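Suppose you are handed only these lines of text.
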Amino acid sequence: MTSSSERPLLFLDVDGPLIPFGSSEITAVSSTTVDQGNPLLARLDPAIGARLTALHCQLVWATTWMEEANEVVAPRIGLPKLPVLEWPDADTGGTPRGLHWKTRPMIEWATGRPFIWVDDEISAMDRLWVDASHPGPSLLHQVEPAKGLSDTDFRVLAGWLDAVAPS
Ligand SMILES: [Mg+2]
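From them, the structure of the protein bound to magnesium ion can be written out as follows.
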């Protein structure tokens, strides 16, 4: 039995994977049905938290929502409070051109441990950077932002986890 601290990390973006951008009609509907806060929250799938938990990864928010992901997203999808990836400090070199701001902090967090990154904004530069700087297994999984995390995405994630860290 593997403890949760040894399980792969899963760095999770919000806009795109959990809040699909969808069509303009959806925007029109949700802005009238949600009475407060961000109308995009109506696009969250309340059941998706359970599916993410079932992957048996250590989930980490990697999103510009930062701590707000714990305050407004997690409760709506049935996730507990999760650790949050911090925006890199400009004093430590900031973010090299062409690299996502999340990439270096994720590698530092993982310290060689297997990790998944679920995002709709993964570039070739990010993949090169991870290949060169992260000694362990990694899966940089690009989600189609119009649809959000789909059954197909979950199959890919589960398949990778079965190969890398069978539970
Ligand atoms: Mg995004």
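What can we learn from it? The pocket of magnesium ion is lined by residues 13, 15-16, 119-121 (CB under 6 Å). The first helix runs from residue 24 to 33.
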